[in-house]
């Protein structure tokens, strides 16, 4: 997998890049800054965390410090 732009409601909010056996989210919008540099199991897990955060909820954290959806 190469880097992939992640959008929310049609607006780019970050990119994910491969990081070992996961993906790392790199925020490009302040609204998702809380998720910057977090690792996820998949692009869909990152998108779910973004939706959760932008719905006004604090980012969920799973064991190991990575955000969970």
From TrEMBL:
Classification of source organism: Bacteria, Pseudomonadati, Pseudomonadota, Alphaproteobacteria, Hyphomicrobiales
Native source organism of the sequence: Sinorhizobium sojae CCBAU 05684
Protein name per its UniProtKB record: Uncharacterized protein
Source domain of life: Bacteria
